[in-house]
Amino acid sequence: MAFLGLDLGSWILVLLGLALYVYFFLTRNYGKWEKKGLSSVPPTFFFGNNKSIYTGSEHMNTFHRRYYKQMKDKK
Which residues form the domain of 48? Predict the structure, then answer.
């Protein structure tokens, strides 16, 4: 059975390709600051370094203060 001219196997390949494109699009800037010679906290997929802010488990001021203290002595 074909939907829009593609069979099931082709749709799976299209969806897999789309998922890979979205993943690489969202993670393309991870490591940007290390490439420029600066230290940073390793990001996680989708949220980057801001997961605690997005989930509401940490206030933005506390988040930035913690990262400032963590990176204060690093270049």
Answer: 8-71
